[in-house]
Amino acid sequence: MSAAISVRGLRVERGGREVLHAIDLDVEHGRVTGLLGPSGSGKTTLMRAVVGVQLVAGGSVVVLESNAGTPALRQRVGYQTQDPSVYGDLTVDENLQYFATVLGASRPRVTEVVGLVGLDGLERQLAGSLSGGEHARLSLATVLLNEPDVLVLDEPTVGLDPMLRRDLWGFFHELATGGTTLLVSSHVMDEADRCDDLVLLQEGRVLVSGTPEGLKRETGTVDLDAAFLSLIDAADGTP
Tens digits of per-residue pLDDT, 215-227? Predict the structure, then answer.
């Protein structure tokens, strides 16, 4: 079976400067792939290219055997951005009803996703009055409405407390077990061990990819922080 997401020679320019440099990347079906790297490494730009909203200078991005951004993928790919994607002056239920109408999802599916993300009992609460964790879960609920085959999540746990982060990562793995493919970005290295596969970006290039255990074996380290530092030092020529 081909990869769920296949990127070949992807180049992106911004302001006359190349920000992604001929990236090659495969994301396998039904797995949680972590896209890690410091701020400015190109994670968001790469994710935008995967969902087909980024102008590219060269290369190809194929998602579920179709070119990224084609109409055939609109109901199959969900994208949660870093910025708020819900309306603060609408209730939880009103937000979900609005997005369900846009996506063609049913009323029963709205009820189902409320339960999936743990917002039961908050349906009549204004989104603007939700806690940070509840707001993040509501944003996630909107992209689950059409039951996407691929979920692209841009730093979905930023600003959340450790327990909420743990719960969301558990939910990501439940989705993957059910067959959903997830590409999840983070700049927090302690989330790397929660992924099935990892891709480390640095300055618009893929520095390394592999499983967490494989990267630790490759670098002879016992934790991923040390593994990534070793790989970054090697790339920079630091002894």
Answer: 888 888 888 888 8
158 part of a folded domain: no
Domain extent for 100: 82-147
Q: Taking the model in full, what pTM does it have?
A: 0.90
Specify if 27 maps to a domain: no
**Are 102 and 113 spatial neighbours (Cβ–Cβ below 8 Å)?**
no
Residue 90 and residue 204: Cα distance in Å, rounded?
38
Decide if 2 is inside a domain.
Answer: no
Assigned token pair, 197: 């596969």
Q: Residue 108: inside a domain, yes or no?
A: yes
Q: What is the pLDDT of residues 74-126, one digit of tens each?
A: 889 999 998 778 999 999 999 999 999 998 899 999 999 999 888 999 999 99
Strands 32-36 and 181-186: parallel
